[in-house]
Task: structure prediction
Amino acid sequence: MTLTFQTEATDGVARAGVLHTAHGDVQTPVFMPVGTAGTVKAMTADAVRSTGASIVLGNTYHLMLRPGADRVARLGGLHKFMDWSGPILTDSGGFQVMSLSKLRKMDADGVTFQSHIDGSSHRLTPARSIEIQHLLDATITMALDECTPFPATHEQARTSMTLSMDWAKRSKDAFLARPGYGLFGIVQGSVYPDLRAQSAAALTDIGFEGYAIGGLAVGEGQAEMFNVLDFTVPHLPADRPRYLMGVGTPDDLIGAVTRGVDMFDCVMPTRAGRTARAYTSRGVFNLRNARFADDATPIDPNCDCPACTRHTAAYLHHLFKADEMLGPMLLTWHNVAYYQSLMRGLRRAIVAKRLDAHAGEVRAGWTAAEEPA
Result:
């Protein structure tokens, strides 16, 4: 049996569920910290675990270039390599098809990349992407797709989506089913309802253990993203997990959970942690701001991470002003902890059937922020 998903409670279309995998159970809604190159930047595996994170994300493109999937396999797989015994989801490399467009040539069979590291040439096809993810021992493997850029005309989006659906079928054909492992397909179609519906139908016909919604958070704005979710989610199988790729801010997560999404990943909390931006229950703050120089209180009184329980905002401000590496480490730890706390709160609210009220309370707490959450 491949990995399975069980819905335990609902509130409207929002779900609280459990994903059963070969590397442990994952309670949803869930936010997956991004460990692109086999590490969540600035955090040890123990630190990531301490936040309550149960699943992390790795990236096929980056790991195939360095240290190489075959090497990771020889060394015992990605779980052992990065000291993470829990589930790992690996991105297929499809996003890099878009983001590294100047370094690739794409055709109907796959993509030829020029390495951003040393300029060497690499070929990524659906079968090769699945093979690499198998060598990494990914718990959840993603089908190779083309992440459609924004904006795109209907014809451009249709052509891109059709290619991704062909690659999805070829990814499924190459995937080796194992107990507790699974393959997710990725819905594309840009902002066009008919294309999203066609994509979802094509993926459902192929059959996957989960369904991701790709091609969002690429410049379309939150309102358009939510609009796409509104007309896409109803087309996805109710008995499988739904994963919104590359999203996002705390407000994005709340809005997507209320629209029936179960899984998320984004570099935002870790990247923000390295640039002095703190996500808190009071909103988003820039710790380089002079207002924190004499602040003897924690950055978030509702957080139990080390940055909040053992240090003051003034100390974190000092670390960033002095360019000490401990500043990014502590603030990344905090941001990941805050995202995990946010998701736990949403799950509890779904179980208690008070999601709308809880979402309002969370958003009301952000009023002290320097910028929107």
